[in-house]
Amino acid sequence: xxxxxxxxxxxxxxxxxxxxxxxxxxxxxxxxxxxxxxxxxxxxxxxxxxxxxxxxxxxxxxxxxxxxxxxxxxxxxxxxxxxxxxxxxxxxxxxxxxxxxxxxxxxxxxxxxxxxxxxxxxxxxxxxxxxxxxxxxxxxxxxxxxxxxxxxxxxxxxxxxxxxxxxxxxxxxxxxxxxxxxxxxxxxxxxxxxxxxxxxxxxxxxxxxxxxxxxxxxxxxxxxx
Length: 225
What we know:
nine-stranded mixed β-sheet, two-stranded antiparallel ribbon, alpha/beta, Rossmann fold
């Protein structure tokens, strides 16, 4: 398994993501750090992760500037060819701004930054990112965001639910997200975006391991491909 983590000015979860990926990829040598100004991705990639943080200082809409970085053309092309891509927190915002996922992340309903553990309910196992969980299982994962309020028009919501593309829901929405949505999938279920941080629950030293299976599921999918 070969993975890449995209870095933007203001990314602050890139190392956390790289460590979590390295643990299932056979070592750090199989994880590349790619700068946003690069125009090409490393050869032979299996999966791309877009980390949390505050890319470009969260100016304009969160993720809007990052989505127009040179590397994102290559990421979009990779995804459109069936590659696995996931974005966490700011990464989710970037995926919606780049058009790889529908909807938008808006200012939290309480207009305050939220940093705490939340409970998530697993809504589907029909994706590599959720395959190691069970439907209805509740896991604990941290959130840390100011603009995590997911919104989409009624037709998009109907399509997400009908096509089994809601990956996670909050048991109690901390940010006002419509339909309690915490994470969604693309139509082919190879692209995922979620506001919570599974990479921050991928080691006992981080307070829990509920995020480990997120990364193990990606590795499983690549082995069986």
